[in-house]
Amino acid sequence: MGTALESTAFKATYAVKEPFVYAAIVEDPATKEILYRVIEPTLTPEDKLVLEKIKHIMLQELEVDVTELNEEKAPKIIEAETRRIIKEYKIKVTEETLNKIFYYLTRDLLGYERLDPLMQDHMIEDISCDGARIPIYIWHREWESIPTNVMYDDPETLNRAVVRLAYKCGRHISIGNPILDGSLPDGSRVNATYGTEISKKGATFTIRRFRADPLTIVDLIALKTVSPDLAAFLWYAIENKSSVLIAGGVASGKTTLLNCISMFIRPDLKLVSIEETPELNIPHINWIPMTTRQGFGKKEADITLFDLLKNALRQRPDYIIVGEVRGKEAYTLFQALATGHGVQATIHGDNPQSVIKRLESEPMNVPRPLIGLIDLIVMQNRLRLGDKPVRRTVDVTEVGGYDPDSNKLVMNQLAKWNPQDDSFIIKTESLLLKKIAEKKGITVEEAMADIKKRKVIFKWLESKGMRRYKEIGAMMREFYADPERIYRKAMVESL
């Protein structure tokens, strides 16, 4: 991997793993292409020979499998073994070079070798390798899809990397079994192919990163994905067990918003989440996260979304959260809605009408009366403002039920995004708010007052820099224990 950055314009730089790894976002002056550059310690040809010699001796003599040790012990053992080898074999090396060697040994023996800097970067969502001698592409949280300066030089090296990924997933991949679908120890999902059995370009892999510190609603307000008013409305709706479908295109922020609004669910309720790729990270204690699984060699051993949903219903959850609805599980999900379960899910669609059409069509086949049980359809979109990609909640439509006489759904567009000034227009009349007010025995005006209190709390959280999901989770628990106390605290500390 080269680190030469001559004749390039820096857009951004940041530390990935100080003091060894940095990332640079650069622009090629000739093509204007945005590129991601990994910057690692530079080794001289002599340093590289020393590194390979120490690594070879260590692999021959080390009696402990460092990959089986915890994150604290393994690096210490590698450092101790390195110092022993240097002393025993009389290898001459400076302290500066030794620190670099420690880094590369730890990276290669414990991490993901040349892929490790990308796995360490919290700004990267996806990592995609299309074959040998092709730059690895990433999906960056700010710069979206961009190529990197990381690549595998030959098919053999790439095949070994894929086998290593399979090992870390606790799975096997080979010519006889050339497809891998598994999870890494950190929860990231891997899909890989081996050799040329599947792809003519050779081995490939895609890694969907699991975010340990997910974005929260405070982040989305700061990013202007949603407005404080809209966020407060969603909080009030979900607090009152409203069901929500979040729709949009690829990478529009559907799952991010789903994770954010799931934190609004009362902490005493039981949640079950169902996903193909583990992306949700919810601070509720009474939460059962479930993911699909590819069978070990047999199709019958596959565990699908449909299987998980049937299993979830037997666990009597208050809320069912589905990462993405796209198959026959949709009918079962809406049946759960009809029996009183709260539902949150994402689905692909361009607008509320296309979402409804998709639900009614194969393979979902959800009857229109059941669709009428959903409360909100929230539309997400990815677009560009200036030269930066942004995500916006562009439409919130209420579903007020099903009218059997006209065979139509009662729908009301509650909010829409205005591209002229990047603002949100929210109607004053809400079918859902009226429904909640009637159920609670209060007026719509009183419900609106409650929503305004939640807006004050959001502004307080933002002013205090409280954005981490555990902080939001703790605040939610305090709020539901004593709403007025948290509101008063927000009012006083916001002055």
TrEMBL record:
Domain Bacterial type II secretion system protein E: 136-361
CDD domains membership: VirB11-like_ATPase (cd01130)
GO function terms (MF aspect): ATP hydrolysis activity
Similarity annotation: Belongs to the GSP E family.
Stored PANTHER family: TWITCHING MOTILITY PROTEIN PILT, TYPE IV PILUS RETRACTATION ATPASE PILT
The protein's name in its UniProt record: Bacterial type II secretion system protein E domain-containing protein
Organism (species): Methanosuratincola subterraneus
